[in-house]
């Protein structure tokens, strides 16, 4: 498993089992799934996470666009129940290449995101898209990362704002060149971008991973109420030689420095390992996430986990669910979302009735256990290989993307009505 470079499509060979009863139930659920858009060739390819804005869906494609380097798109619902797509921006390389993270809006409707590659130094960018008169959007590169810089390089994930308008994100490479891992090389960083008031942005490195405290962060960050940051690293950790990834916390001080603490280091197959997605909180301050590998299932094909704080300042990890057979889903790269009733939702990139991935729900039983239910299995024509997190509308319908499949085999945007 690589940790320094991540391809857009992950291929894993597994033995998939299909049962008649599962196929029957999946057929019934399939009536609630609708492909809103199928990406095609050089125009689009490889969609990532979605975000809602004024009833429209916004997202990125890692490939395609006018120059083949990726795009930002908008999907708008029409009166006849269909969705109309519009390309807001096509990356050309110098202004970014291979956007993989989700987008975020600011208070006035501008979009912000990252690209893994491209920019002035070919190691990724942070960009802003601003709507102009006539439905035209203008792109501005806020920062270009350099491989030689210790600030980090190759941002893989989404950004978040603080209340003062500063942006925070992770860089999957760069940072500490003396990083100690099995793969060698620099291990990534956490950065902050602050507006100057004159239209420019200043980058500040909050933490450089050294391997022992984590390596290769692929996920975005979240804040708690006290202003601490939380996320995961896909590699590194104190449990050498395995170094199977971490959950970490960054805490600010009055002097402006930030202190990192490893809340959990993944250490065994049963524990789960190599998390790619970020975390979410519940109302009690517990953290939840996924790992695409590990678990106590026979194939080590992924987990959903919970981290709970203790009165001593430590955190206890509990595996809520291990994917045991590929029929119930396998290899969950995406993060989790809540519904109003306290159920968790996400996708698996593989598995299901047709081995093309699933949308699943985890429901608490009331005695500390969780029950998994496959809501939908992709069959290829309606999508294949979902790797992005889901978004939910006000009435509980979920939306997402697949990297492959659909009418043109280049991915889809889908809706599952509940």
- H/E topology pattern: HEEEEEEEEEEEEEEEEEEEEEEEEEEEE
Give the CATH class.
Mainly Beta
What shape does the CA trace take? Answer: globular
The CATH topology comes to: Methylamine Dehydrogenase, Chain H
- Indicate the percent of residues in helices: under 10%
Q: Approximately how much beta-strand content do the residues carry?
A: 35-45%
Unreliable residue runs: 1-31
Mean pLDDT level: 89
Q: Name the structural class.
A: mainly beta
Under CATH, the homologous superfamily reads YVTN repeat-like/Quinoprotein amine dehydrogenase
Strand arrangement, largest sheet? 1-28-27-26
How widely separated are the two ends?
Answer: 36 Å
Number of strands: 28
Number of H- or I-type helical stretches: 1
User: How many domain modules?
Assistant: 1
Supply Rg. 20 Å
CATH architecture: 7 Propeller
Largest sheet at a glance?
Answer: 4 strands, antiparallel
Protein topology:
Layout: H1 20-30, E1 33-38, E2 44-53, E3 56-64, E4 71-77, E5 83-90, E6 104-105, E7 111-115, E8 125-131, E9 137-144, E10 160-161, E11 167-171, E12 189-195, E13 201-208, E14 222-223, E15 229-233, E16 246-252, E17 258-265, E18 280-281, E19 287-291, E20 303-309, E21 315-322, E22 337-338, E23 344-348, E24 358-364, E25 370-377, E26 391-392, E27 398-402, E28 412-416
Antiparallel strand pairs: 1-28, 2-3, 3-4, 4-5, 6-7, 7-8, 8-9, 10-11, 11-12, 12-13, 14-15, 15-16, 16-17, 18-19, 19-20, 20-21, 22-23, 23-24, 24-25, 26-27, 27-28
């Amino acid at each position: 498993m690589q940790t320094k470079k991540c391809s857009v499509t992950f291929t894993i060979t597994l033995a998939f089992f299909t049962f008649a009863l599962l196929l029957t139930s999946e057929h019934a659920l399939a009536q609630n799934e609708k492909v809103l858009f199928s990406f095609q060739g050089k125009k689009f390819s490889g969609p990532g996470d979605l975000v809602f804005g004024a009833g429209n869906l916004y997202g990125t494609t890692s490939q395609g666009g006018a120059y083949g380097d990726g795009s930002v798109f908008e999907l708008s619902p029409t009166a006849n129940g269909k969705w109309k797509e519009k390309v807001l921006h096509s990356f050309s390389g110098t202004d970014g290449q291979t956007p993989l993270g989700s987008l975020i809006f600011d208070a006035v409707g501008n979009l912000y995101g990252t690209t893994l590659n491209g920019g002035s130094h070919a190691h990724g960018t942070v960009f802003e898209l601003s709507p102009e008169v006539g439905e035209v959007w203008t792109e501005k590169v806020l920062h270009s990362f350099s491989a030689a810089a210790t600030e980090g390089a190759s941002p893989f994930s989404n950004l978040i704002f603080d209340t003062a308008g500063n942006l925070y994100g992770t860089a999957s490479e760069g940072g500490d060149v003396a990083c100690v891992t099995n793969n060698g090389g620099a291990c990534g960083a956490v950065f902050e971008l602050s507006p100057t008031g004159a239209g420019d942005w200043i980058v500040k490195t909050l933490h450089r991973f050294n391997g022992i405290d984590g390596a290769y962060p692929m996920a975005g960050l979240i804040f708690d109420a006290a202003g601490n940051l939380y996320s995961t690293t896909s590699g590194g950790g104190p449990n050498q030689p395995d170094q199977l990834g971490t959950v970490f916390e960054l805490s600010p001080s009055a002097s402006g420095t930030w202190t990192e603490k490893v809340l959990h280091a993944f250490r065994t197959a049963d524990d789960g390992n190599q998390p790619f997605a970020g975390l979410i909180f519940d109302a009690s301050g517990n953290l939840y996430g996924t790992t695409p590998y590990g678990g106590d299932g026979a194939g080590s094909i992924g987990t959903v986990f919970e981290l709970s704080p203790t009165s001593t300042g430590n955190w206890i990890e509990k595996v809520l669910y291990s994917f045991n057979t590929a029929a119930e889903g396998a290899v969950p790269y995406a993060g989790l979302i809540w519904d109003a009733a306290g159920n968790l939702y996400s996708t698996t990139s593989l598995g299901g009735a047709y081995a093309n991935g699933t949308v699943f729900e985890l429901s608490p039983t009331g005695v500390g256990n969780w029950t998994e239910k496959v809501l939908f299995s992709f069959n290829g024509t309606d999508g294949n290989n979902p790797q992005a997190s889901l978004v939910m509308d006000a009435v509980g319908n979920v939306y997402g993307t697949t990297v492959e499949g659909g009418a043109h085999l280049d991915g889809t945007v889908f809706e599952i009505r509940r």
